[in-house]
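Researcher: Good morning. I'm working through a list of sequences from a screen, and I'd like to move beyond sequence-only analysis. For each chain I'm collecting a predicted structure so we can compare shapes side by side. This is the next one on the list. No need for commentary yet; just the structure.
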Amino acid sequence: MLPHPVAEHLRDLKLTGMLRAWQEQQQLPDAHTLTFDERFGLLVDREVTERANRRLQTHLKRAKLRHDACLEDIDYGAPRGLDQALLLSLASCQWIRDHHNCIITGPTGSGKSYLACALAQKACREGLTALYLRVPRLFQELALARAEGRYPKLLAAYAKTQVLILDDWAMARLTDEQRRDLFEVIEDRYDRRATILTSQVPVKQWYDAIGDPTLADAILDRLVHNAYIITLKGDSLRKTKKQLTSPPEVRQ
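Model: Good morning. C-alpha cells for this chain:
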C-alpha cells in the first residue's frame, strides 16, 4: 500500500504528534461520529502535548539535575522547618521570572540538594532552562575554559541559563581566582537570572568563606538582598532512610 499523502505531509512538516493522532483516529470505529472541528482539535492537542513533552525532556537533560526530584513529592511531615506556604509560592516560578534568588542552608543530609533540584525541575516543567553544578565543579570548568580560551563563552552560557543551581557552596575558603570567577558568574546573573545556592554553612559565615572583604560585599549583596532563604534543620534524612531500609535484627 502506498503511503497516504496526508501522513507524508505531516511527517515532512515534523508534525509527529498530529500524525500519530491521525493514524490512531483511522483505527477508531466511531471516529466518524466526531465533527471535523472535534477531530481536528484532538490532532492539534496531541501535537501541542508532544512538543511540550519533548521540550521538557530537553530541558531536563541539559539541566543535569543531581536528583530526580519533584516538589509534589516533598515530605512535609519530617521535622525540617519547611515552610509549605513558601514552597507553594515558589512553585509558581514567578520568583524566577522576577530574577530573584533562593538560598537553602542546613546540615548535611537535610535535603538541600533535593529541594534545589525539585525547584529546578518545576522550572523545566514551566518551560524555563536550568543547570545544576556543584561549586567545586563550577570552578574546575571555569579554570579549564580559561586555559582553553573558552572562558567568555562559558560565562555567557551560564548567564543565559534561567535557573543556575550552585550546590555545596562555602565548603572551603576561596582562592583569589575562585573569588573573581564567582563574582563574574554572579554579576552576569544579577537582576537578569535566578540562582539557587545550597550550603551547610549559615549565610552569616559566608564572608569568611569568600575571604576578600571587598569582593565578599559585592558578591553577597548581589546574592542575598533579593533572595528567598530556606533554613532546614533536623537529623539527616539519609540516616532515616537507612534505618527504614535496614533488615530487621535477627534474634537468637
